[in-house]
Amino acid sequence: MDALVLQDVRKSYGTREAVHGISLKVHEGEIYGLIGHNGAGKTTTLRMISTLLRITSGSISVYGHDVSSEPDEVRKIISYLPEDAGAYKDLTGRAYLQFMASFFASGPERDAMVEKGITLADLGDRIDSKVDTYSKGMMRRLLIARAIMPSPKLAILDEVTSGLDVINSYEIREIIRSIAAGGVTVVMSSHNMFEVDMLCDRVGMIDQGNLILEGTPTDLKREYGMDTLEEVFVKAVRG
Amino acid sequence: MSHLSSIVRKELKELLTPGSVISVLVMVFLFAGMGGLIGGEVEKASELPSFGLVADDTDYYEGWNPYQYLVSQYGDQSDKVVLMESQYGDEEAIIAEMQEKGISSVLALPAADDFRMSIESGIQVVVEQYYLFEPTGMFGTISSSLATSIVAMLNTDLSEILISGMSEDADYAFLTSPLVSSGDDVKTVIDGVAHEGVTPAEIANTISSQTLMIPIVIMIVIVMIGSIVISSIGSEKENKTLETLLTLPIKRTTIVSGKIVASAIVGLVYGLAYMVGMSFYMGSLMSPASVGNVDLAALGMSLDMVDWVLILISMFLSIICALGICMVLGAFAKNYKSAQTMTMPLSILAMVPMFVIMFSGWYGAGAVVQGITFAIPFSHPMMAMQALMYGDVTLVVAGIAYMLVFALATILVTVKLYNSDILITGLGQNKTLQRLTGKS
């Protein structure tokens, strides 16, 4: 089953069109990577999938629910983690997870969800420290735990390891890999081609609002005769 | 030097944003307008008001005619001295004539024969003062002290005549003050009922001393909670917690309502805390030891439970309106810093009615100023207490109805904004703005 279907999706900001008719499909349980340079239209696309931005034309369907006509249904099955997202600084990590879990469940179910989040965040005693005392790595772990704990069908992760050190990046990639193995579909954007190469089942490359190529990392490297996805990216963009 | 100038240029560029410059310009216009308002009020107060005289246009004593004397004193504005048809001592007739002719202050002298008889007998003549009480602003009651000055003028003029013909055994106390007008001789009419021994100026001063702090407190509370809400939205945008919140399975109306209700509670707590503080302050002002205060309850101007409920409703709704405006403004803020600039329009909106009500008062303001004041929702709790003291329930209820409509409208606009792209993209991507600025 297709978890996510984009059909000729366009997005205009005023007179400027940022996304020019993107069409793609993401299969259930797949990790799909969106790559492209800054301003290419990746975040705009992810925001449209997440119901944050309205689509100018075309359609997006998440597990059969149309993003424009059924945004409430879509929000029940997705989790969106924006780039450089933060948490409420006056809360502790635990209180933040409890606050977020309260929108998905109540009673023992909510408590179980929070425990799952705490385990995923793996912050030890610091889960009871205030969020504003967290390092960037700790914050990211908390936020990814928040995104995953409600067991979404589709996780949308924008630059999830941006600015993190090697260990934190590695651990977050492991988490993504494990949730995908558990059946969660992941759509992520990244500038780190090494990460995309290792993690994603398929990759879509966006340039100036157009989807210019799509395929598995192996197929793309073979097609372009390159050793790395980074080289594919450069060649595809520069022509 | 070049390093210093580079840093200075960078700092100036950061500090002198269009928002901050516009804010300063608006403040300049606001203070200029306020100066004009106060100047207008003082000018209005210093004009000679129409003034009624109950007397005969005849010789009262040795060629002294009080009416002709006052007409000569008024000079070019002699038409403002109105000779009343009512008779001295006929309180009901005098009040009816005042109401009919729209004259707010009257001096009443006895008939010429009675007057002459008293003077010749060395008995002080009682001059009665009548006032129709009219709610005014800070300077509006200055004119009501005019009657007292006129009594003094008449006294001096008559005294000169008496002294010029004095004998050796003359009563100098009488000669220097042949007319007397004090205490029960002063009557102020409120809602058709004459109250003795109190002037409109004294009543207005007492009401002002009890209500003057309210506009300031309301202004502070609104600016404070406004700042909290706009900054909260700006902070949510900067930390991208808002993006997360908007993708959760909750309705946008729930998010908007949650923010408004929580902020309204905080605003009410702040407001009540200020009111409690103010009540201590007012308590000390209104203590029995304080001089010059009028017993407003005796004049039927005290507030009952219904009035207090109306004031509280008015306060609560004004806070909701403020929050509605803040939610709309906050939607356009890109981050915490730009959110801070967004509070300026709210502060100005809160300051305009505060100054109008403090200096001119609702009742003393012209139609245009009244229109502007009414349109600003924060005006209503600022003037509710005074209006209720004056018995003007209609104004307060109309204000509450207006605020209810205003609050609903702002909440609807907020929900619409929360469902739009503006919340995420800000105004930079707005089609209309792009067309206006010619950006593509």
Can you describe this structure in just a few lines?
The complex is a heterodimer of chains A (239) and B (440). Chain A is α/β, with parallel strands linked by helices and 239 residues long. Chain A has 9 helices and 10 strands.
Structure report:
With 239 residues, chain A is an alpha/beta fold. Chain A contains nine helices and ten strands. Chain A is globular and about 50 Å long. Chain B starts with a helix and ends with a helix. The radius of gyration of chain B is 30 Å and the shape is elongated. In chain B, strand 1, helix 3 and strand 2 form a beta-alpha-beta unit. The interface between A and B is medium-sized, with 29 and 24 residues.
Any idea what the shape of chain A is?
Answer: globular
Counting copies of identical and different chains, the oligomeric state is heterodimer
Secondary-structure element pattern of chain B, one letter each? HHEHEHEHEEHHEEEHHHHHHHHHHH
* Structural domain count of chain A: 1
- CATH homology group of chain A: P-loop containing nucleotide triphosphate hydrolases
* Structural class assignment of chain B: alpha/beta
State the order of secondary-structure elements of chain A, H for helix, E for strand.
EEEHEEHEHHHEHEHEEHH
> Mind describing the biggest β-sheet of chain A?
6 strands, mixed
In terms of structural class, how would the helical and strand content of chain A be classed?
alpha/beta
Radius of gyration of chain B: 30 Å
Shape of chain B: elongated
Can you count the helices of chain B?
A: 18
What percentage of amino acids of chain A are in beta strands?
25-35%
Show the helix and strand layout.
The complex is a heterodimer of chains A (about 240) and B (about 450).
Chain A: E1 2-13, E2 16-27, E3 31-35, H1 42-49, E4 57-62, E5 65-66, H2 71-77, E6 78-81, H3 93-101, H4 107-121, H5 136-148, E7 154-158, H6 166-181, E8 185-189, H7 193-199, E9 202-207, E10 210-215, H8 217-224, H9 229-238
Chain B: H1 2-15, H2 18-46, E1 51-54, H3 66-74, E2 81-83, H4 91-101, E3 105-108, H5 112-120, E4 125-126, E5 128-132, H6 146-164, H7 172-176, E6 179-180, E7 186-190, E8 193-196, H8 200-211, H9 213-239, H10 241-246, H11 252-285, H12 305-332, H13 336-360, H14 367-375, H15 379-389, H16 393-418, H17 422-425, H18 431-437
Parallel strand pairs in B: 1-2, 1-3, 4-6, 5-7
Antiparallel strand pairs in B: 3-5, 7-8
Helix pairs in contact in B: 2-13, 9-11, 9-12, 9-13, 9-15, 11-12, 11-16, 12-13, 12-15, 12-16, 15-16
